[in-house]
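THO complex subunit
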Amino acid sequence: PQEVVEVKKRRHRKSVQQIDPMEEKKKRLLEVHPLSVEITASVNSGPSITVTFQYYTKLKIVTVTSKVSIPSSITANTAREILSGENILGELREGDFGTDSPNPTTPYHLKKIGVNSYQSLVPQIGYAYTWAQGVCGMDFLSKQVRFDSSSVV
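Tokens:
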């Protein structure tokens, strides 16, 4: 007599990873377009600056990151501070430090993912200078537009 052995087939289950839904939303909101523009300007045997423009598809803003390379012949610490990328690109337009999003819908989107201000994202995604939006063909209404009721007829 032959012994019949039943073998149960088991399915492999994918391991379930605990994914924080807020982190997933943040990741989606901070999706960057796959193409970016990088410009490098340099002076003969002097410093050079590399500026990178990236477009965030959900936030609908352009951000700028920069890196300054200073040759070893420039030794002064103050020169290094003055030539840092943020110092060179900040306030090309008066009051434009790039730490606030020019898109008026950004605070709404950030609040949905638990981020209080755009400024907290700057180290991660870059500066959203208003001049950079203009260079890239984007235009947002100024946050300082005031409605004057006396001009209405």
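The mean pLDDT is 83.
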